[in-house]
Amino acid sequence: DAGVIQSPRHEVTEMGQEVTLRCKPISGHDYLFWYRQTMMRGLELLIYFNNNVPIDDSGMPEDRFSAKMPNASFSTLKIQPSEPRDSAVYFCASSWASGGGETQYFGPGTRLLVL
Amino acid sequence: GESVGLHLPTLSVQEGDNSIINCAYSNSASDYFIWYKQESGKGPQFIIDIRSNMDKRQGQRVTVLLNKTVKHLSLQIAATQPGDSAVYFCAENRGDKIIFGKGTRLHILP
């Protein structure tokens, strides 16, 4: 398996533009997690899905952020409109069981810069 | 509030020496902890975990110690190598979620 796949790996955009980050989880995994990593706040859980259903979105910073998982092999995280403070590395992770750190596999991340 | 945190932001260790990375937690009910390693430009990678019914667990060149009395855990890396250079996170498993600490950057000195 190729592991968790994220695209794009790097994104530079201007304030006010819409940004869409994509994730393909590992086949067979039924949990998908979106994280954001910054120097100031560390690694934060934004939202996670179980069997394509959003379970907890309490980490989503505000209404400008939205996430979807239309099927078991694809998820998107959208920011609209984007702001400079959204600049961060966004990680997607997937797992095949509830919790269990050893089963949560991270993608390589998308580095987002909002000018 | 409850948190999982690290004592030092940066640790420098001579190649070949043992490294010890410390972590404190605040929730006495916490029962499952995980250590992750994050290399530059990559996502976090699982290293080792420990549950509260244990006080020590060993892996390949790594050992995690858990002291529930003082709510402290540590990651020990034996014979540190250049490839161990990374940021290390302790994390707490809370049901479906994993709550990460801020991380310690490990520098390997030649």
What does this structure look like?
The complex is a heterodimer of chains A (115) and B (110). Chain A is mostly beta strands and 115 residues long. Chain A has no helices and 11 strands. Chain A has strands spanning 5-7, 10-13, 19-24, 31-38, 42-50, 53-56, 65-71, 74-79, 88-95, 105-106, 110-114. The model of chain A has no long low-confidence stretch (mean pLDDT 92). With 110 residues, chain B is mainly beta. Helices cover 0% and strands 57% of the residues of chain B. Chain B has strands spanning 4-6, 10-14, 19-25, 32-38, 45-51, 56-58, 62-67, 72-77, 86-94, 97-100, 104-109. Chain B is globular, with a radius of gyration of 13 Å. The A-B interface holds A 4, 31, 42-45, 48, 50, 55-56, 91, 93, 98-102, 104, 106-109 and B 32, 34, 36, 41-46, 49, 89, 91, 93-103.
Helices and strands of chain A, in order, run as EEEEEEEEEEE
Low-confidence stretches of chain A: none
Structural class of chain B: mainly beta
Amount of helix of chain A: under 10%
In angstroms, what separates the terminal alpha carbons of chain B?
40 Å
Instruction: Name the overall outline of chain B.
Output: globular
Largest chain-chain contact?
Answer: A-B, 22 and 23 residues
Give the proportion of residues in helices of chain B. under 10%
| Average residue-wise pLDDT of chain A | 92
Q: Evaluate the radius of gyration of chain A.
A: 13 Å
Find the count of extended strands of chain A (DSSP E, 2+ residues). Answer: 11
Count of helices of chain A?
0
The profile of the biggest β sheet of chain A is: 7 strands, mixed
Strand content of chain B: over 45%
Task: Give the SSE string of chain B.
Answer: EEEEEEEEEEE
Specify the overall morphology of chain A.
globular
Oligomeric state, counting identical vs distinct chains: heterodimer
Low-pLDDT residue intervals, each spanning 5 or more residues of chain B:
none
Report Rg of chain B: 13 Å
Largest sheet of chain B: 6 strands, mixed
What percent strand of chain A? over 45%
